[in-house]
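Holo model, iron/sulfur cluster. Inputs:
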Amino acid sequence: MKYISCRHLEHGIAFFSKSIECCCISSHEGGGNIECIPDYFGEKIDWDKFFEERKKIRDLHKSGQIYPKCKGCYYLTEQDWDDENYFSEMLIGHWSHCNCNCIYCYTDEDKYYYNTRDFYKVLPVISEMLDKNLIRNGGEITFGGGEPTILEEFEDLLGAFLSHGINNIRIHSSGIKFSPAIFKGLSEGKVTAIISIDSAAPDTYKKIKNINAFMNVRENIGKYAAAGGNLYSKYVLMPGFNDTLEEVQMWLKDCQDLGVKHIAFDIEDHWFKANRHHIPQHVYDLFDFVIKNNAYYGINDYQLYERAMNMREDRKKEQGLND
Ligand code: SF4
Ligand code: SF4
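Output:
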């Protein structure tokens, strides 16, 4: 049936530290944060009840109304939605422990708290969902908490997705710990792994990450790149730390030396929000440089994240420029 809805509302589930929600989108008028199960800490789920609740929101949309928490969300589209009960969009974000200390991370405000916070195991519930065929391809499974590779259950968890043929799994990792399951997923073309190295030298890395792990991360990027899949080396530009042409060129050269074929280039969130309306020219120039020259370094494709896209759009509007 054709009506206005969204892929998360129809087939999404997001595991957070204390609840299960539909999605992780919250910066629109309605505010998002649609709790499906509040106070969740790994308990067994009554799926009939879960889908009954989801049906109420679905029916509201079928009647032409919009669920108040979804109002104004850019994910809403009018299309033919199937009426089945399954999940194809999933966020696994129930923990915040990490083996890295990026100064731009939300966990930097209280690292001890975020590294010691209790979390539950998702493998039992995910295994049950896979066995019941509740997870299907067509969307994306995203790991978006702290560092996935340090979760005790991570290798088994990713292995379970892979052995059930789930083929679009996106994992952000610090790259400090090598994961055989990520390597396998990359080589099978089912995993996209993004590793933010943000630098081309140990000193710069240490300033941004507060840990001496540059060589280790570099080595792991090389190992993952050898798997031949969607391994992205990511560079979050942090003005004052890693915003020289020399460093960016060295990073691209290093990508080439390591056989990296995909890159992501972004601008640091706090800095961007504080400086959005007076971006220095050299920051624009660095983005232009990466976009124009990445192929020279053997890169097959590059991604700009939302902030970087916004920054370039702002400039186009202000100066009437075309790419
Ligand atoms: S419309 Fe937006 S807020 Fe509502 S479920 Fe979809 S992504 Fe989440
Ligand atoms: S690797 Fe990710 S989760 Fe870990 S500190 Fe850095 S930004 Fe935060």
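The longest strand covers residues 230-237. The two ends are 39 Å apart (CA to CA).
Archived with the compound record.
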